[in-house]
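Progress against Task 2.4 (sequence-to-structure conversion) is shown through the following example record, which the project officer requested during the mid-term review.
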Amino acid sequence: MGLKKQTVTIMKAIITLLFAAMSYFNMYANITIGEYEFLHPNSFEITQSVEQISDSAKIVLARNYKEIANKKILDVIAAGMPVTISTGYNGNLQQEFTGFIKPGIGTEFPVELECDALYFLRQNNFNISERQITLKKLLERIAPGYIIETLDTNLGKVHFSNRSTFQILEQLKKDWGFYSRINGNILHVGFAFDYRPSFTKTHDYTIGENVRDSKKLKFSTDIDYNTEVKIILRKPNGKKEEIVWGMRNINGTMKPVRIGDKEDKSREKGAASVKSYDVSHIDTKEAERIAKAQLQKIIYSGYSGSISGFCEPRTNAGDNLRIINRAKPDREGTYLIEKVKLSYDEAKIERENFISYKVA
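Structure tokens generated for the chain above:
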């Protein structure tokens, strides 16, 4: 038997053993809503994204939960009630979501609930007017009780009238380019392309071992150099500066070049796809560094798309995922997980990881 055929046979045996072992894993879930506990939900889906402030969850309760504790379920469940979701195999449950029920509970059975962590951050109200304030000081005022992870930068003059915490965080994204992410009691605010919160971890997915489905994962060796990164720099005087970097052939070698430089005379206007990022409160030199670094992250030979695993390892949005292919070791690489969908139903627990740029 040839080495290649032997390797394929071994891989098939590993996959068979893995799924045989998984068949002996009993799935468990525990959903707590207020003081009530639901051990047998019909299904739920938890979505995490580095571009969203909060995780979100959709819960479908089984039909037999029309009543709980001798009370009609629709009489005891209300918007704003705290929700936790835990799941795992063979009784090893870990918390996957914490938040609150959103308004708009359905009246049909089975009961469907939508949740996120923003209920009370949408209900509060602030009037803030400052000639000078740092980003951290602003966040401490609008999000008391949270551990703040952010840049120590001065926002200058700010004015918010009758705005909730959620609305102010959205305004920070729109006007300053700062993305917010809540993880438990931590509020992380920073640039989307420089995502390094304290809760980031690295996980390994080995194709053929602990991967449920890799059909949506694509590997490309054809690098698309026809992409540019544009940093829209907002200056303290209100003016904007556009800094654009692209990859160009310089003396036979592809190198990052600031668009508009003399080396870039051959560029056709509008020929490239452009990824834009709004930033503020940094100088032109730092904006150029960001543009160049981001360009080199998104132009690479490697994987794109999504890859699905089981309940464990417990990947989360913002984590790094190292993808290993033992049959093709040269393809190994580490990627930022931009989004995760955790699905639970009677048949499976599945994590679909949507990868973004290449970390290493």
